[in-house]
Amino acid sequence: MIDSSELVDGLEYLGLSRTEARVYLAVVRHERTAVDALASAVDAPESRVRRVCDRLEAKGLVAIGEQTTETTVRTRFAVDVPDERAVALAAALSTVNRQYGQRTAFETVDVLESGEAVVDRTVDLLARADEEISIATSAASLPELIAPLERALDRGVLVLLAVGDGGSTADYAAGGAVVNTVAYPLPTVVTVDKRRGVVSPTSIPGAEHADIDPIAFDNFTVASKVLAFFLGTLWRTSTERALRRPCSLPHTYGPRFWKAVLDATLYLRDDQPIRVQAAVGSGRADDEPETVTGRVVDTRQTLIEPTTGEFPLENGLTLETDAGTVSLGGSPGAFKETYEARSVTLLEDP
Fold it and tell me: 316-321 and 239-243 as β-strands: parallel, antiparallel, unpaired?
């Protein structure tokens, strides 16, 4: 009978019942197995195990196959989970994966064993950033990170920096396009290019003493949920302290769409009319890009106060074109906008 109390406890935190957690672990161990074998493994009636498997399938964790002679269950990993549990899901599934030797969609989630490992992985991620960095950490953690952040800014990367226990803003104002602070310690939360990141439950210097291990991830779904937590919670409850001037126009941002949204917002607030020329698509991978040109009439954003986005990741442009009003969202992930922007250029509107 399979029952690892630590793994079961972790899966219970994600919302599974204890029986669901035990059945799920039995499925993972065998990867694909029959319901009657599962019932034997967890020492429960077959009819009850079948009902549990139905609930696990509804949660997206397993897939049930009806064969001619038997019903089989195989592993499948959920991506639709509450934002505040996304990191816990990744860590728990990564632990299950290591224990039972399965390869999963979360195979690039790594547990970091020390504060030094958190620093090293964060510095490496900052050096590889091409579009956006969001980073929350405490002031004591910044000395080793300021230089990599400044280099990222020099490459044109958008950097959102939230500092906990902040002292003099002058000590770290150069580290972000937007710098916010709070008066209390912050966990270390880093996302890069909406794909990779690091999460440590405490600030970096004490990460090795935390009850929950820090993790690093390379997964779009996990990164999106961590970024939503950053913007919707850490960023929203902090105070804006420093803001870089927008790029001089004309400026081609390429795929750095959020940086274009930030600069467009700043220009509109200064009553400077601007235009956009953008290579756009419909969001399908196989579509042919087309060019959209128009005057920027509004932005929706959650990057600076006052925010205008309806949800944490909403950062977009509204254009008045010859064909009417259209909206642009970033790529990938735009779903409510008219177009998904692949490359953007801002120009002065004469």
Answer: unpaired
The whole-angstrom separation of Cα 260 and Cα 342 is 12
- Give the Cβ contact number of residue 21 at 10 Å: 24
Cβ contacts of 67 within 8 Å, gap of 6 or more: none
Q: Which residue, 347, 178, 173, 320, is CA-closest to 259? A: 178
pLDDT of res. 25: 80
Give the pair of three-digit tokens for residue 323: 């064909």
| Helix orientation angle between 35-42 and 18-30, rounded to the nearest 10 degrees | 120
Taking the CA atoms of 165, 170, 175 and 180 in sequence, report the sign of the dihedral they define.
positive
For the sheet with 62-66, list strands across it. 32-34, 71-75, 62-66
What is this structure's pTM?
A: 0.69
**Three-class HEC string of the chain:** CCCCHHHHHHHHHCCCCHHHHHHHHHHHHHCEEEHHHHHHHHCCCHHHHHHHHHHHHHCCCEEEEECCCCEEEEECCCCCCCHHHHHHHHHHHHHHHHHHCCCCCCCCCEECCCHHHHHHHHHHHHHHCCCEEEEEEEHHHCCCCHHHHHHHHHCCCEEEEEEECCCCHHHCHHHCCEEEECCCCCCEEEEECCCEEEEECCCHHHHHHCCCCCEEEECHHHHHHHHHHHHHHHHCCCEEEEECCCCCCCEEEECCHHHHHHHHHHHHHCCCCEEEEEEEECCCCCCCCEEEEEEEEEEECCCCCCCCCCCCCCCEEEEEECCEEEEEECCCCCCCCCEEEEEEEEEECC
CA distance 320 to 296: 7
CB 21 within 8 A of CB 14: no
Tens digits of per-residue pLDDT, 230-281? 998 889 989 999 999 999 999 999 999 999 999 999 999 999 999 999 999 8
Asked if 62 contacts 73 with a C-beta cutoff of 8 angstroms, the reply is yes
Average pLDDT over residues 58-64: 74
Do the Cβ atoms of 338 and 326 come closer than 8 Å?
yes
Phi, psi (5° rounding) for residue 47? -65, -40
